[in-house]
Specification:
Layout: E1 8-11, H1 13-20, H2 27-42, E2 48-50, H3 53-60, H4 64-74, H5 84-96, H6 104-115, E3 120-122, H7 135-144, E4 151-153
Parallel strand pairs: 1-2, 1-3, 3-4
Helix pairs in contact: 1-4, 5-6, 5-7
């Protein structure tokens, strides 16, 4: 794999969804949206961002106007392939972590990031991806399969210690 200029970030769909959606009336969701916008404006330039075809497919679903806004945010971001190695690792993650079968797409996001050597996987999916209880198991499965796991984190965790004034 070629040398990168800065730390690499696999951008999972939930981050792009928060960027493109209307402000939520739910306080927690609204806070996550604000943090995501701050990260996008202030921190993303320090990272090399990547997505996968799965991110593009998920971002294209739903309301056409919102899907178009998500596509605008994704435009120009390099796409990592969903290879056979990714598929094999995704199945192992579901089976060995274990994750529920409905989390198959989540395991693919993790596997893409691991197999392509990403430093970080940025997400707001705290149920199956950025989950402190599952993280050690996910890391173990990746390492046993021969991959360095990415750091599974939220935009808040990747703000680099900046205060949000």
């Amino acid at each position: 794999m070629e040398k990168r200029m800065g730390p690499s970030v696999y951008l999972e769909t939930s981050v792009v969804s928060y960027l493109a959606s209307q402000p939520s009336r739910d306080l927690v969701t609204a806070a996550h949206q604000q943090i995501t916008h701050e990260w996008w404006l202030r921190r993303r330039a320090g990272y090399e961002m990547f997505v996968s075809p799965l991110v593009l497919d998920e971002a294209a679903a739903g309301d056409p106007a919102v899907a178009a806004r998500r596509a605008d945010f994704l435009r120009g971001i390099p796409i990592l392939g969903v290879t056979e190695a990714v598929r094999v690792l995704a199945v192992r993650i579901v089976r060995e972590v274990p994750l529920p079968s409905k989390a198959g797409a989540d395991s693919v996001h993790i596997a893409v990031a691991a197999c392509h050597g990403m430093d970080f996987l940025l997400t707001w999916n705290c149920a199956h991806i950025a989950n402190a209880q599952l993280r050690p198991r996910v890391e173990r499965v990746c390492r046993l399969a021969g991959y360095d796991p990415p750091v599974l984190c939220t935009p808040d965790e990747l703000m680099g210690g900046e205060s949000r004034d």
